[in-house]
Amino acid sequence: FAPPDRGLAAPAAPPAEAAEPLAGTAPEAEAEYAQLSEQLHGAGPAPAVGKAQAGASSKAPQTFDLGADSDDLEAETEDMHLAAEMSAAATAAASILPERPPEPPAAPEDFSSEDVVLREALIEFYRVHKPENLANINAIVARYRGRGVSHLWAQLALKYSVAPLEALDVMQRTLYMNSVFEYVDEDYATTLAEELAKLRGAPEAGGSEPSRTELLQRAIRSGVDDGRDALLRVLCFRGIPDDPGLRPQIWKVILGYLPMARHSEWGALQCEKRALYASYKDEMLAIDAEHAVEVRGDGPRSGELKELLQEIKNDVDRTRRDMEFFRRPATRACLQALLFTYARLNPGVRYVQGMNEVAAVVLWVMASSDMESAEADAFWCFSELMVDIKEGFMQALDHTGEGVYGLVEGVTKLIRSYDPDLARHLQKSELPPFVFLVRWCTVLFAQDATLPDVIRLWDAFIADPRRFELVSHVSLALVLSRRDALLATEKQFELAEILQAAPRIADFEVILRKACAICAFERRAQPPAFPPAPRLEVLDDLSDWAQNAAVAAQHAAATASMKASEVSKNFQEHIAPVVKEKAEKAS
User: Fold this and answer.
1) Which helix (H) or strand (E) covers residue 403, if one does?
2) Which residues of 361-418 form beta strands (DSSP E)?
């Protein structure tokens, strides 16, 4: 993730075939390692690397048998057998002196900066684990650069018994951020990579690449032509520059408020939806010149509705008090109105504490371009966002795979997979990071990180093709960032303080990169599986709260069924007539 003022650098041009599924496992392969291809030792001259090889049209790229004893590509010739030409004294001396590992060849001139980083990491790795592979270093880089780097490190980690945490560190270092690693489907990822290359086009005069702002604008124009927002999502996933009006427009598209397929109607859609929100608000609430918000009318439910509004007011008054924008009476009135309106129109979800933090982020982004329409636009974007995250706010789903416990269990499984030692330490200290994970996952870090960091995170969250699964990866990366401090104490209070403070002191550019490395490992479709399944002793260390969650799920399912019938009845009696009437007026 580049800082906002840095252009989105074009990735190295990997072979078109590099994104295709890699070779499968041979039946006679080593049990702990899936071989990539047949051995090339003695198979002829070394293949060319760099641009010439990257542009090759063959669909069967040169691959390397990393599981073999030797990965040398150059055929050895008789005249290279120095032992036959050495004198007896030289032979004796050579037998005494330690053998020097071969020196890696020089890097090709056309290697990108990311290729060079991968090459350096592989040199360090092979010096420790298999020095004879250094001769092939450039060819290995050319084979696995880009999207294939996660497959490379997964296989090497399994073959050489490298701990998942160590593999994750080197993956973070060598990740090609502009490769389309967030998609599982290899063919679709390849198609997107090719479309992105066309979108970038030839470098401009002077060799400069188009800026990220220009790329995003090109993606919007491309989406207008084909009705798809796929390219816009890929670019948004990697961060949106802070150019005026750019992020609000992209968020509206990605969240579904302004569908790309209806681009020609965007102006009419916004006018219609803004007017519809205004009618909802005017019917439910009265707002005076001092921005005081009151429930309109004195019907049989007025007491209940006044309590709801007061609950919302109390939370809004505590929202982002460190920022002058959120201390303004007008801003607070906007948040109160849109949250109350949402709660009335969505009785199955209603209002839950934490929604105020989510709505505040959306309102801030929308207000950055058009304050007059910010409240209405924020309402519709917030409503679209809640479609995907509402399960975390619904108590009936708490102990199911769809609710907050499902989110938290996903993160705890990741911790056990990548760092079983830390998982065991937290369990034995009787402080599973449950409380903190609930808040991080439910409100998407809106309550714990600084607002600029939250906005950068949300660029990736809302563009994630597996909507908001990246939240789990960021949570794991954040916990791992405080690993040393957590392992240094067993006191619950100190552990809690460390986790509570983590989002406020984190460098989220680093956290995001580690989260993307986790994402690349988790979404690689090729065998072998990595990280390997946790060991049994780690599973035996699960705390009581995690074990009881499975038992409570059955009870929660029955409760959810009862609540569902109540919600359905309430909808039919109260909200359905209102929605129907508004729809008729809008038509």
Assistant:
1) none
2) none
